[in-house]
UniProtKB/TrEMBL annotation:
Its main location: membrane. It is found in: Cell membrane. This is Branched-chain amino acid transporter AzlC. GO terms for cellular component: plasma membrane. Pfam families: AzlC. One of its GO terms (biological process) is L-valine transmembrane transport. It comes from Poseidonibacter parvus. It is a multi-pass membrane protein. The chain crosses the membrane at residues 27-45, 111-134, 140-158, 167-184, 190-208. The lineage of its organism: Bacteria, Pseudomonadati, Campylobacterota, Epsilonproteobacteria, Campylobacterales. Belongs to the AzlC family. Keywords: Cell membrane, Membrane, Transmembrane, Transmembrane helix, Transport.
Length: 211
C-alpha cells in the first residue's frame, strides 16, 4: 500500500503537471493499470505519437510480464473465472508479492490471489486519483518524480534478494542489463536483456538451484 499509494500519487501529479484533466488518472489506472507504461504514456501524449507507435512501444515495455505469467501458470490453473482479472492485474509488484510471500494453506488460494491483486490495484487507483486532484489545485515543480518508479523497483529487488538469499540471478540480471545497455539499441534493450538473462538462467540452472 505504501509503495503503490506513493507511486500512484506521483503519477497523478505528473499527469496533471502537463495540463491533462485529473479524471484521466483514475480512468487509466482502472482500465490500463500498468505503472511503468502509464508513466511512459504521458510522453506518448506529449509527443503526439501515433496509435501504431504507441502499440509497439507498449508491447516492448510490458513484454517482461509475459514471462511472469509463464512462471505462474501452475498457480493460476485452478482460479476459474477469476483468471482473466488475475492476468490483467499481474504487475511487477503483485508478482513480487506472489513469489515472495508463502501461501497460507488455510486460505482458499484463488481468492487470496484475487484480493491481493485487487487491493494492489485499489492502492494504485486511489493514489493516482488523489495525486491528480491535489496536483490540479497546487502547482509545483515535478522534476524527478518519474524516478519514483525506479526507486520502487530497487526496493522490490532488495526484497526478492532477502527472500531468495541467492546472488546468482541478480548477477545475471546485472550482466544482461549492462550488456544490452552498451551494445543494443535503446528501443530493443529491454527485450534483449530479458532474452540474455533467460539464456544465462537456463545455462546456470543447476548451480542456481543448488545454492
Amino acid at each position: 500500500m505504501m509503495g503503490y499509494g506513493v507511486l500512484g500519487f506521483a503519477f497523478g501529479l505528473l499527469l496533471v503537471s502537463f495540463d491533462y484533466d485529473w479524471y484521466l488518472a483514475p480512468i487509466m489506472s482502472l482500465f490500463i493499470y500498468a505503472g511503468a507504461l502509464q508513466f511512459v504514456a504521458i510522453n506518448f501524449f506529449n509527443a503526439k505519437a501515433g496509435f501504431v507507435d504507441i502499440a509497439i512501444a507498449s508491447y516492448f515495455v510490458n513484454i517482461r510480464q509475459s514471462f511472469y505469467g509463464l512462471s505462474l501458470l501452475k498457480r493460476f490453473k485452478k482460479t476459474g473465472k477469476l483468471k482473466p482479472y488475475l492476468i490483467f492485474g499481474l504487475t511487477d509488484e503483485t508478482y513480487a508479492l506472489l513469489t515472495t510471500i508463502k501461501d497460507d494453506e488455510q486460505l482458499k488460494k484463488r481468492w487470496y490471489y484475487f484480493f491481493l491483486t485487487a487491493f494492489n490495484q485499489s492502492y494504485w487507483f486511489i493514489g493516482s486519483t488523489l495525486g491528480a486532484i491535489v496536483g490540479s489545485g497546487i502547482k509545483f515543480d515535478t522534476a524527478g518524480l518519474e524516478f519514483s518508479l525506479t526507486a520502487l523497483f530497487v526496493v522490490l529487488c532488495i526484497e526478492q534478494y532477502k527472500s531468495l538469499q541467492n546472488s546468482i540471478p541478480f548477477i545475471i540480471g546485472l550482466i544482461a542489463s549492462l550488456f544490452s545497455l552498451v551494445f543494443i539499441p535503446s528501443d530493443k534493450m529491454l527485450i534483449a536483456s530479458i532474452i540474455i538473462a533467460l539464456v544465462l538462467m537456463f545455462s546456470f540452472r543447476k548451480k542456481i538451484e543448488n545454492d
